[in-house]
Write a structure and sequence with these properties.
Helix content: under 10%
Number of helices: 0
Largest sheet: 5 strands, antiparallel
CATH class: Mainly Beta
Strand content: over 45%
Shape: elongated
């Protein structure tokens, strides 16, 4: 999302809502904006799971998965995350 008020040289931040990020146990061929991550923490909250992931040992990302289903994920485990480019929100710093 871009509100059109940005100019070359502006300092911006990119944001993606936690529920817009998908998690998978295996790399998805052809997906863009895909990153390998380690699970820092995982909290089951009934109909959702809340993850804190570490990407490249420097970026912590919160992910919310609705209706998570069964899996063997646990802290320290490897997952892959991806999101649609249209989910990115640009913010002026």
């Amino acid at each position: 999302m871009n509100n059109g008020n940005f100019s070359i040289g502006n300092e911006i931040s990119c944001s993606v809502r936690p529920e817009s990020i998908s998690i998978t146990d295996n790399i998805k061929e052809g997906k863009i904006n895909q990153f390998e991550a380690r699970i820092k923490s995982l909290t089951y909250l009934g109909d959702v799971e809340e993850y804190w992931l570490n990407i490249r040992n420097s970026l912590e990302v919160k992910v919310i998965v609705h209706n998570p289903g069964q899996h063997e994920r646990k802290p320290g485990g490897k997952v892959y995350t991806y999101f649609d480019p249209s989910s990115v929100i640009l913010l002026m710093n």
